[in-house]
Structures
1.
Amino acid sequence: MFSKAYQTATQFTHPLVVSTRFYDKTIETGLGAFIIINSDGWLLTAAHNLTTLLTHQKHAEEINEFNLRTKQLEKDNLANNYQTYAVPNAKWITNFSIFFSGHPINILEYHIYKENDIALLRVDKTAVKDQKIFPTFINPSTITPGTSLMKLGYPFIEAKATFNEQSNTFELPLNFFPIPFFPIDGIYTRNINQGKTADQSMDILFLETSSPGLKGQSGGPICDTNGTIYAIQSQNLTFPLGYKGSIIINNQIIEENQFLNVGIGVHPQIIVDLLNKHQIKYDMV
């Protein structure tokens, strides 16, 4: 059913690897997905994939204040013959990198909408010069619950970067790329409207699917059987089913509450509105 969608969506969907190094020199690496929208270098992903970008800016200011405070305390200690110290935050972000399809790319412009969990980024168009196929977005006025949808991304892959002190860069294991895709199917079940954004300028609107998105699919497309984008994978929700299942273990009956996990994607109305707002060219059907 989704062979056409898979062949189409894998052409414009790519891995997004975010590596973070903290003040205590520990390293974390996350893997998600992004979409190349057009030949102008515009990309689309989930906003939570880029949390590090915003946090790093805040931490850079705090680290600078800490360094100034430390220097002042050193002067005070020498002048007054006592010892006091500033205490650093071990989880300050000191270094981070965003690898698009295995390469660090300079972000020229970005718009991050945390409440709707969507981010638009513009990179140098030479970085997408080899891209030949671009996505088509569904017209939001035409969508109906019950439509079969496919989520695409890179689950079940462990991304583990190291940091090269000499070059001051992150490095991923050899042969880490290319990363295999993994699709999962479901149906469009309903819309989830969470009200207005804090500035009242937009709805906070999501599209629900009957199956959850998998870790590594965040920011990836949710497509119909033709590969047309209905949503961008954002998060999951868990609903209690109201009954318990039982199993016998060591002659004891064990009962567990049963739940249904569903996927949540950024609604196409939000996607189209933001593309129009920022005058980003795109195809719609």
2.
Amino acid sequence: MKKFLLIFLLFFTGCSIKTAIKQDPLYEKTLTYTQRGQIINSLETKALIDAVYLNPLYPEKFTKPTFLIGVYNDFHNTLQNQEFKLTLNNTEPVKISKKIPSFILYKNFPFYNEWMNYYIVEFNQTQKPYVLEYKSKDWGEVKFTF
């Protein structure tokens, strides 16, 4: 009897979680505009990066191509350091800010990770498609196309 009850509770809980996620349109839309990558060297992860293209999620708030970037790396765990470079269509950001506006509930976004540092990164207008590149001097690169 206890096994049956445990199985029933697990099944019921699992279904309610799936239903809650399916009914969150912002989560689903955010998932569409989120990409994740990592730079690996010799089976060791040197950097993780998450990129969320914010313009389609908040069209009234951003006029220039703007991204929420989460990074985790071996170099002070910051976006701005001498080892890594972030570009959009081969152009550097015009603004990088650690202050994330309160209307961006990024802790509820897909792939949120407490170990990462998050930044709002703004670029000048450029042609689409947008190719966001996070490149290391020594270990390779990650490219996302939006």
3.
Amino acid sequence: MPRVAGQIDLSKNEAILDAAVDVLGERGVSASMEEIARRACVSKQTIYNHYGSKAELVQALCQRRVGEMTAMLETPEGIADPAQALAAFARVLLGKLLDARGAGFWRMAMMGAFEAPDIARALYEAGPRESRRRLADFLRLETEAGRLACPDPLEAAEFFAGMAIGSYQTAALLGVERPLTEPQIDRIAREASARFMRAYAA
């Protein structure tokens, strides 16, 4: 069956997104689509057929990242145990923040923000803003269910994310190494969740 215009194989899609993270992390937002296509072993036209523009490609990168970060918030297990879901969210958030590959991508994107404001906007809207919105939706549902009491879920989402990543975000964006072991990440995530649950107890 012929493929619908704009569709590509899932494996090619993942290869393009992986290549984009690497190339944009190495060269910034001014990196060429040709280089991304070469690294992904596809044609430049394949990328444009699927994404349309570099800004849309960046949005897809962020959507994949946010989907991985917020998956636990959308499962029955997460809804049944908000403390566990929040700890899982914080764990993934910290893990991705400290991952050299992802941190390099965000660092280079921020450096090129004034050069490419459309891409910077796409990054923010599909990345940090969307992840906070999904967390706020989770907190709103938990409040309606009587398990939490968040009068302003979006504000509470900002508080929780800030508590989880702290100054590690600044260090990562500046390229300053502040390594954490898996047990340390787990401890921070659980502590952030426990403190949040006490602060917003129903």
